[in-house]
Amino acid sequence: EVQLVESGGGLVQVGGSLRLSCAASGFTFEENAIGWFRQAPGKEREGVSCISRSDGSTHYADSVKGRFTISSDNAKNTFYLQMSGLKPEDTAVYYCATEVGVSRCDRAWYSVPMYEYWGQGTQVTVSS
Q1: How far is CA 39 from the centre of its chain?
Q2: Distance between CA atoms of 65 and 120, rounded to whole angstroms?
Q3: Sign of torsion, CA 87 89 95 98?
């Protein structure tokens, strides 16, 4: 059974940092691309970042480039999203997602339908 469990969210002040974790199980960790998404109240879920397992390439939404970093730890079967320079507009529930058997981020990596499995989400709140 594929499982994705996010953690690490919380309340942080503007300019602060958080590291989100996505613990993965039920599939071959080294062979699956992972996407991070977020959803703010009243807004659609949007793609934040994706990491390919085939070549380690990474992708970011323009709104987070230079502030967020996606990574993975094979020994822990865990993906991370390091967030710094946080802004109030980063406030959202953050989700990790995967499509089993897909090792490379698709050109439309930011699209919700590209992913079959999702975690339950972790809340990030940035206060001003």
Answers
A1: 11
A2: 24
A3: negative
Q: Which residue has the tokens 């949007």?
A: 46
Strands (E) across 1-128 are located at 3-7, 10-13, 18-25, 34-39, 46-51, 58-60, 68-73, 78-83, 92-98, 117-118, 122-127
pLDDT digits (tens, 9 = 90+) for 94-121: 999 999 999 999 999 999 999 999 999 9
User: Residue 30: what pLDDT?
Assistant: 87
What SS3 state is found at 10?
strand
* Residue carrying the six token digits 């897909």: 102
Which sign, positive or negative, has the C-alpha torsion 18, 86, 111, 39? positive
Residues 94 and 81: their CA atoms lie apart, in Å, by 10
Q: Which amino acid is at 82?
A: Q
